[in-house]
Amino acid sequence: MLDTLPQPHAAAKSPPSMDDVAFDALMDDPYPSYRRMQEAASVVFVPSARLHLVTRTRDIHTVEANPAVFSSSNPISLMNKVMGHSLMRKDFEEHAQERKAIGASFQQKIIKAHWGPRAQAIASSLLSTFEAEGRTDLFDCFAAPLASKMLMEMIGFEDMDWRDLARWSQALMDGVGNYGNDPDISARAREASAGIKAGIDHVMDHHRRTENPSILSSIAHSGIPHSPEQIHANINVIVGGGLNEPRDSILTLTLGLLQDPDQQRAVMEDGTLWPQAFEEAVRWISPIGVYPRMVRETTVLGDTEVEEGTQLGICVAAANREQGVFDDPDRFDIFRGKKQHLAFGAGPHYCAGTWVSRLVVGKVATPMLFQTLRNLRLDPDRGPEIRGWVFRGPISLPVLWDA
């Protein structure tokens, strides 16, 4: 154990149980419940989610600084059951090696020279299909297909419909967040995993023969041995977060700007504001809101004693709206003072796709959307719909513009 963690002692309290937090309430709007948890303790048990939740910024940094105590490896986690034993559920050298194997695809020079132009081409093509219509739902027509098409190219899939990948991604995300143990959600997640495996099998020989910027090629040419099961598990993880995060952050950034004409006007007049607008969007509604850790030995986290074997949900979405850390945290405000958020995690598991997302969402796709669709605005007859807590974002964003 690292010296930064205290030993268990009598003054630390047991995690309080919040029996009145309904699962549906978390799905609809988790932030009021998160605020109560932050006021209550460093660790809170939520029976409806069957999980102990960590919601305070300082405690999350402590967790990420102590992987020997708060381990990513957890054989009983939903992620392991749904996706297989991926690099996300590994620590230390085992995690570092598998992360290194995908690293070539995420190098800054590759992002700028290859993935940036591909994102621009995909966004332009999508916009041309509905630019003349004057109204659409941006989830279906822009954000979902862009994220899916982009991810297909990044992974190295071929002969695949973007709708299949989008459906599989959502099924995996639903499966990882299936704390209510719904059997239909579990079945869809298994189907998705099987589809992804077939997609890998279809192209893997090609990527072994031909070195290219794709993730599968990076793995094949990394010099780091991978079993088929390892490749499948890691691609499952990438399909989940790698599609969900850019899709939802495009929609969240768009929604935040459309709800505040002054901020929208500011980014349109000064393009240098787009990157900070993106960072504010993923703080405001974090696409990946919760991820798991396992307590390896009884210890004290903040003001709470947690026992060995406790499964924790690390709520970065809650931390990103913590009172006292952020001023007026429920407000989307691109002009707030620069302060570190946790939307991409922290420590060794910091999201590998962070810089791709910053480019694709913050510098390419969303600016192109506003530049192309003149007088873009929310549809007054159909409001946006936001859903989820483990993974959260707009699931519908109807808009109008001057065609």
Descriptive notes:
The chain has one domain (23-400): Orthogonal Bundle (Cytochrome p450), CATH 1.10.630. Helix content is 51%, strand content 10%. It contains 15 helices and 12 strands. The protein has helices at residues 23-28, 31-40, 57-65, 78-83, 92-102, 108-130, 138-155, 162-176, 183-209, 215-220, 228-258, 261-269, 274-284, 316-319, 354-372; strands at residues 43-46, 51-54, 70-71, 135-137, 290-295, 299-301, 304-306, 311-315, 377-378, 385-387, 393-396, 398-400. The strands form 4 sheets. It has a 5-stranded mixed β-sheet, with helices on both faces. The chain has a 3-stranded antiparallel β-sheet with strand order 4-12-9. The model has no long low-confidence stretch (mean pLDDT 92).
Quick description:
With 403 residues, this protein is of the alpha+beta class. The protein has helices spanning 23-28, 31-40, 57-65, 78-83, 92-102, 108-130, 138-155, 162-176, 183-209, 215-220, 228-258, 261-269, 274-284, 316-319, 354-372; strands at residues 43-46, 51-54, 70-71, 135-137, 290-295, 299-301, 304-306, 311-315, 377-378, 385-387, 393-396, 398-400.
Helical fraction: 40-55%
Residue runs with pLDDT of under 50 for 5 or more positions: none
Tell me the major beta sheet: 5 strands, mixed
Could you give the order of strands across the largest sheet?
A: 1-2-8-5-3
- Domain unit count: 1
Architecture per CATH nomenclature, i.e. the level-2 architecture: Orthogonal Bundle
Structural class computed from helices and strand pairing:
alpha+beta
What's the overall geometry? globular
- What is the element string, with H for helices and E for strands? HHEEHEHHHEHHHHHHHEEEEHHEEEE
Number of strands: 12
Name given to the CATH homologous superfamily: Cytochrome P450
Q: What portion of the residues fall into strands of 2 or more residues?
A: 5-15%
What is the helix tally? Answer: 15
**CATH topology annotation:** Cytochrome p450
Which CATH first-tier class would you pick? Mainly Alpha
Mean pLDDT: 92
Alpha-carbon Rg, integer? 21 Å
Kindly, what is the distance between the CA atoms of the first and last residues, rounded to a whole number of angstroms?
61 Å
